Amino acid sequence: MWIVIIIVIFFVAQFFVSKQIQSSKITKQGGMLNKYGQLIDIIMSWHPNARIAENGSDHINIRTSSESGIIDILLVQNKYNLSVQWIVESSVFGKHKLKWEFYEFDDQEKMAKRIHIDTSQYTKNALSAF
């Protein structure tokens, strides 16, 4: 029983240490706003009322809201990757979600282009179903 508890404590501690190292690494690179500034600027240019809803040490949430719903674009820095999630919650069209994984130093314009193409195509397909 004690061995199981010790193993669990070890893995929990390892997780928190790893997360702290990751946060320090991002801070040394100027934070998420600096590191992914070009990508963030491009994404925010797509929606006139886009705003940064949350700015954490390893993530940023860009939110656009209107009467019909909310679009969240969540950027999360993992060990060597940037995870991007597009989450739509619409009173008309329901909930939708897409996800991408990019190498952290990939070209940010290419990341934005891939996201824009995929979300545009997904939206077009979803709207054609109605």
Structure class: alpha+beta
State the separation between the terminal residues, measured CA to CA: 56 Å
Q: Major sheet: order of its strands?
A: 1-2-3-4-5
Stretches where pLDDT is under 50 for at least 5 consecutive residues are: none
Shape: globular
Question: Which strand-content bin applies to the residues?
Answer: 25-35%
Write down how many β-strands occur, each being a DSSP E stretch of 2 or more residues.
Answer: 5
Oligomer: single chain
- Let me know the largest β-sheet: 5 strands, antiparallel
Number of helices: 4
| Count of domain modules | 1
Taken in chain order, the helices and strands follow as: HHHEEEEEH
Helix percentage range: 40-55%
Give the overall pLDDT as a whole number: 86
